[in-house]
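Contributing new records

If you add data, match the layout below exactly. Sequence lines come first and carry their own label; structure lines follow with theirs. Keep one chain per record. Anything else will be rejected by the validation script.
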Amino acid sequence: MAVLLADRQLGVRTRGLPVLDAHGAETTNPPGGLRGPWPGRAQPQPDGTWHLAVDPRAGTLLVGDLVVEPATGAEWTVLLADQMQNTDDPTLTYLRVTARPRAADGTRPEGHP
């Protein structure tokens, strides 16, 4: 078994739980302030998404939340997040996130064109 070490600092900006507006449509808040950063890892994938390893102190991540690398300003929009629990060593627990890069000035709320 290989252990991939952290290669950058990652933080999160969450939008909170969705609520229903007066018309019954699901809405979320804009991303909140930065939490973190903590040691993490980011690897680009052939399909254009990224696999991110985020510290579990980030808490629950939902679709549309942001993972941020403050040192470079890079941001990714969360598509899927799962907590990976290591039964042998709890210090190796992490959040496995599939995300796509966030584009500045996009036409959708999450920043994608």
